[in-house]
């Protein structure tokens, strides 16, 4: 593993990790709300690292990346777009495939809106959210997220933070994770400050303008039993994006890349090979 320190939007220092071979097609993994690059362990410790250049990082305010104080560093689209552009540019990633889980759907669309799609080969939306406002609550965004937001964002109530994050992590998968995996996931979730979690969910986002103009291939990966980002969000991506194709996972929750990593890795490898040779 190589570790990079990349200067992202507004001078924020980002913790970036790399595996695999530099002269192979690149995959940039982008995690979700309150998560960490460690969530991609079943990808970077798999055979994917033998065939591709894998890069994963901690979002601003998450993990080992810098957490700026100003709220607009999280609520405005430009810093997120600039972060992705900085990683692609400073690491010299040649037409990477962007893999975005959950909240990363917003971030990928922020990037494409600001920088276009010429520098990427394709997008894999994984249980990804692309629209966020009150009208989506219970329709596109589910109780697996909404029920835990109040406790997870309570800045002066650490016991509520802990309980909310425990419940949120448990609800991310259709079946309970092995105890050691759950404990590690709980740790990387709880280190994110409530003020950061809160700032991220105050955004009002509609990414239809990006989805309708995408020309790069898009793979929409979604668990049928996802209660965090509802399957209806996946249907919305498919209806809105003309280049999208679906990969539905039965009896799978919000994290198909963890719950069925063998299938996910195989499908991702096929998608990347096709996207980077077209």
Structural commentary:
This protein has one domain (2-277): 3-Layer(aba) Sandwich (Rossmann fold), CATH 3.40.50. The chain is built from 14 helices and ten strands. The protein has helices at 41-44, 48-51, 72-75, 77-90, 104-115, 143-146, 149-152, 158-171, 179-190, 194-201, 208-213, 231-240, 256-259, 261-277, and strands at residues 2-7, 13-20, 26-30, 53-57, 97-101, 122-126, 131-132, 205-206, 218-223, 244-249. An eight-stranded mixed sheet has the order 1-2-4-3-5-6-9-10, with helices on both faces. Strands 7-8 form a two-stranded antiparallel sheet. The longest helix is centred in the last third of the chain and has 17 residues, at 261-277. It is globular. The protein starts with a strand and ends with a helix. The model has no long low-confidence stretch (mean pLDDT 97).
Core attributes:
single chain, 278 residues, alpha/beta, Rossmann fold, 8-stranded mixed β-sheet, two-stranded antiparallel sheet, 14 helices, 10 strands, globular, Alpha/beta hydrolase, hydrolase
| CATH topology description | Rossmann fold
**If strands are numbered along the chain, what order do they take across the biggest sheet?**
1-2-4-3-5-6-9-10
Overall 3D form: globular
Overall mean pLDDT stands at: 97
Q: What's the CATH class, please?
A: Alpha Beta
Reported CATH architecture: 3-Layer(aba) Sandwich
Portion in strands: 15-25%
Domain AB hydrolase-1: 25-260
InterPro entries: AB_hydrolase_1 (IPR000073), AB_hydrolase_fold (IPR029058), AB_hydrolase_sf (IPR050266)
GO molecular function: hydrolase activity
Keywords: Hydrolase
């Amino acid at each position: 593993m190589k570790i990079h320190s990349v200067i992202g939007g507004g001078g924020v220092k980002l913790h970036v990790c790399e595996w695999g071979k530099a002269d192979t097609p690149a995959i940039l993994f982008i995690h979700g709300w309150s998560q960490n690059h460690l969530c991609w362990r079943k990808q970077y410790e798999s055979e994917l690292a033998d065939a591709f250049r894998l890069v994963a990082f901690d979002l601003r305010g998450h993990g080992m990346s810098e957490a700026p104080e100003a709220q607009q560093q999280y609520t405005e689209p430009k810093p997120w777009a600039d972060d992705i552009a900085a990683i692609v540019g400073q690491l010299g990633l040649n037409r990477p495939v962007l893999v975005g889980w959950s909240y990363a759907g917003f971030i990928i669309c922020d990037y494409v809106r600001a920088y276009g799609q010429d520098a990427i080969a394709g997008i894999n939306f994984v249980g990804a959210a692309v629209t966020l406002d009150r009208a989506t609550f219970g329709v596109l965004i589910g109780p697996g997220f909404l029920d835990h937001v109040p406790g997870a964002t309570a800045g002066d109530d650490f016991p509520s933070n802990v309980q909310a994050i425990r419940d949120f992590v448990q609800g991310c998968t259709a079946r309970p994770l092995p105890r050691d995996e759950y404990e590690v996931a709980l740790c990387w979730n709880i280190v994110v400050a409530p003020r950061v979690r809160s700032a991220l969910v105050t955004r009002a986002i509609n990414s239809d303008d990006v989805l309708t103009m995408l020309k790069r291939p898009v793979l929409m990966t979604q668990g049928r039993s996802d209660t965090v980002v509802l399957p209806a969000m996946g249907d919305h991506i498919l209806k809105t994006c003309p280049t999208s194709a679906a990969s539905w996972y039965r009896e799978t929750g919000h994290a198909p890349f963890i719950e069925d990593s063998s299938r996910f890795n195989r499908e991702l490898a096929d998608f990347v090979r096709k996207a980077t040779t077209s």
